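Schema walk-through. Below, the input block comes first and the output block second. Nothing else is stored per chain. Lengths vary across the set, and this one has 110 residues.
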Amino acid sequence: MESLWARSPQTAAEVCETVCKDRGWSMPTVKTLLSRLVQKGALATQPDGRRFLYSPLIARAAYVGGESRRLVDRLFGGRAAPLFAHLAQAEALSEDDIAEIESILRELKK
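--- output ---
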């Protein structure tokens, strides 16, 4: 999806050029994933000769918001605080991350 959000429409081959090397995927893997995303209503297809062009139907912000909520619900009982505690304890938060979180919290308190 990141590849298609960055530039669309794209063919399966163009998506593969972007993601296959980094993720160790093959063209059949990309085609399977694209097909599943079309079936789920996340992508639109447009015939282009003997190939298809793929475009996202879901905005990145909406997708990330939904996935974030599902992650918090599934792993942390619907509470975000344990997620931040886990990240802090695992030293997964940089100083910049902490400053950004603090800024967001200050804005929310206003």
